[in-house]
Amino acid sequence: MNKFLRIFALLSMVGFSSLTIYGNETDNDTDSDKIKNVILIIGDGMGPAQVGLLEAYARQSKTPVLKTRTTAFKRMMNEGGVLGVSMTYAANVLVTDSAASATQLAIGKPAKPETIGVDSQGYPRESVLVIAKKMGKATGLVSDVRITHSTPAAFAAHQPHRSLENEIALDMLATGPDVMLSGGLRHWIPEQANDHSSAIYKQLSQMTDGAINFNSKRSDERNLLSEAQQQGYQLAFTNKQMQKANAKETEKLLGLFTNSAFPDAIITDRDRNNPERTIPTLKEMTSKAIGILDNNDQGFFLMIESGLIDWAAHYNDTGTMLHEMLKMNETLNYVLDWANGRDDTLIVVTADHETGGFGFSYSGADIPEPEDLPGSVFKNRSYTTNFNFGPTNVLDKIYQQKLSYTEIFSRKFDQLNAEQKTPAALMAIINQNTEFDITEQQAARILETEDNPYYVQGHKSLSARRVPRIDANDAFFVYHLDDNRQNLLAIEVATRQSVVWSNGTHTASPVLVFAKGNEQVTAPFVQFMGHPELGQKIIKIMTDQK
Ligand code: MG
Ligand code: ZN
Hints:
By secondary structure, this protein is α/β, with parallel strands linked by helices. The chain has two domains: 3-358 and 507-543, Alkaline Phosphatase, subunit A; 363-457 and 483-500, Alkaline phosphatase, crown domain (Non-ribosomal Peptide Synthetase Peptidyl Carrier Protein, Chain A). The protein is built from 24 helices and 14 strands. The strands form three sheets. Strands 5-6-4-3-7-1-8-13-2-14 form a ten-stranded mixed beta sheet, sandwiched between helices. A two-stranded antiparallel sheet has the order 9-12. Helix 5 runs parallel beside helix 24 (531-544) and helix 14 (308-314) packs antiparallel against helix 15. The chain starts with a helix and ends with a helix. It binds magnesium ion and zinc ion. Zinc ion (ZN) is lined by residues 45, 98, 310, 314, 355, 506.
């Protein structure tokens, strides 16, 4: 601190203490620490190494998409943000899932895995969103998964299990956040919508502009869309409809843009400038949500989830995960732009947990050639290493992936006839869509666990390794035991990506907590916390500041 600043700080301290002594004008002296708006951004599965992947790509790649090489995370710190760390484990266990983790953040209390909005004893608890609502604030939930999926659900529902998404939809409607923008239409429409000759099917096709291939998951005839309309919600099913929703005419907006989750970020990036695109980006939804919520004089609470980081990580799909992190980056940059220069807004960015045990790693494969260095120490020998520490062009190759692993299998390989599903065919698809070519032999290894005719017809010897690779003892390393082709592909390219994945589920790695607002309110986040405590801090700051 220079001399001038030190004197200034001293003067302001004197100023504040005299106000405290005289005990009046408290409104004036606390102006600077009044928090009106709280924006909580959750990167699902976004452990420190996932943030590190984005950071490495921004700083070290040859041709970064981020021209300034500055991520939104780095920018947040440059602009006065603070950093804390938090343990994510659920009540009485080592690891968490998204349901317990979001619940802990939402209610500020320990919660058990797979439960929604209830404490560890099973009692429903008020979430930060409900508390905000009671304070007269506007409230919103934005997610690129489904609005009834665990992360948003925990802020507006109370259910014994995360899978009860039909019930969660009812709870969310009863809670009534002013803005809900996400996917998951299937839980909001009556079962009869599945009958394509029904009136409701025709009506929904019209309402959705034919943009959504919907399919109800409800087992009743409740039409939650018309119930929402009766509660004053405007509805939107396409980006155009969302953009048209007039904030002056409505304070409430329900946007459901996909039947289930959103497409992955590689598809989003590819379709970004497609005029036919109907699904808004996470940033577009965030912008719309803030535009509406900001009309409330009392301020707002908004939770934004970048939920597909987790899905990419479950499948150990590094390229898709990088694109998901870039989506998070774009959204966070938007929020930072919006909040620029305001000290009435608290922004907290964290993860619910880490997924996949991801990291760059060094190996003994492809050790680089010796290199001449100009330094005097290397006058008589060249620079050599015993290991390959990972060439930085790996980052560009990871970014250049053209299809997610899920799409490689579901959209391409699975569309082939049974007799076409050969290792050579899989190799061709993978080599067309990724920068890490595999051999036919590697493709065969990936397909070993497949229940497909190619192997039944006399290539059974290749299945010899099937059992050890998907046995329940190995369950740590895959997500779905019956669908682990993506994970097996990841294993085949791992060395060349300089990447390791420890599993296909979640780890208990502590996660980062970025906070930005004003100094008084962000100081408590510079801590080694647990997620219930982190939730409490957010609630306390919001309720203290009314
Ligand atoms: Mg989630
Ligand atoms: Zn997960």
